[in-house]
Amino acid sequence: MNRRIPVGRACAATLMVAGLALAGAPAAVADGSGEFDEKEFLTMTVDHHFGGVRVAELCVDKATRADLKGLCGKIEREQSEQVGTMRSWLRTWYGTDETPSVPPETRPMLEELSGLSGRTFDVALSRHFAQHHREFLPDADKCRKHAKHAELRALCDRMYETQAEEIGKFEAVIAGKPITVNTGQGGLAAASAKDDSAGTAGWLAAGGVAAALGTAVLGRRMRRQ
């Protein structure tokens, strides 16, 4: 004799099975990451980085702060290298290439910055670059989680972490605060043009103290003789 299962219990059991199935499903199914297109990301990022390199070159040429110049020089070198790497992956993995070009949204930025100078340039450049990075972070985050190739996931993870950190540095420049930049090969860029006089005064003061101490020591030696 078949026992009838109450409808409520049957629905609960069905929902439980469905929940267990979803829990065990790959993350790509659960969060829609199957939509990530690796080739499209590479193509887009080549141009995005190329635009960033052009802005960084302008910054190195026009920025008044040594630390900002150092940050832009670092971005210029790193993103130029990454453009070459991603183009090589496009050729190897997909049999295609992307000739770098400045994205349409970056061109007005370059035109605006070309007409600015002094601290006005430094602040406008920093605002634009911070926004440039913020717009890229969601794509980099999706890439580092869902790209098919491990080397691309590693690159996207590095780009995400680096650009998130650089946003903070650009915000510091906007606020008029100094930053420290590792320019590579052990070099650091920390001094700003605004603070050069203060730094020079500090060195002169330190030199004056050293000179005074040296004179005192010499005087004591002469008295002993």
Task: List the topology elements.
Elements: H1 7-24, H2 27-30, H3 38-62, H4 66-94, H5 107-114, H6 118-146, H7 150-174, E1 181-184, E2 187-189, H8 196-224
Antiparallel strand pairs: 1-2
Helix pairs in contact: 3-4, 3-5, 3-6, 4-7, 6-7
Can you tell me about this structure?
This protein is mainly alpha-helical. Mean pLDDT is 78; it is low at 9-33 and 192-225. The protein has helices spanning 7-24, 27-30, 38-62, 66-94, 107-114, 118-146, 150-174, 196-224; strands spanning 181-184, 187-189. The protein has a two-stranded antiparallel sheet with strand order 1-2. It contains 8 helices and 2 strands, in the order H-H-H-H-H-H-H-E-E-H. The protein is globular and about 45 Å long. Helix content is 74%, strand content 3%. Helix 3 (38-62) runs parallel beside helix 5 (107-114) and helix 6 runs antiparallel to helix 7. It has a single domain, classed as Ferritin (Up-down Bundle). Strand 1 (181-184) and strand 2 form a beta hairpin.
Question: Which properties best describe this structure?
Answer:
225 residues; mainly alpha; Ferritin; 8 helices; disordered C terminus
Describe this structure in a few short sentences:
By secondary structure, the chain is mainly alpha-helical. It has helices at residues 7-24, 27-30, 38-62, 66-94, 107-114, 118-146, 150-174, 196-224; strands at 181-184, 187-189.
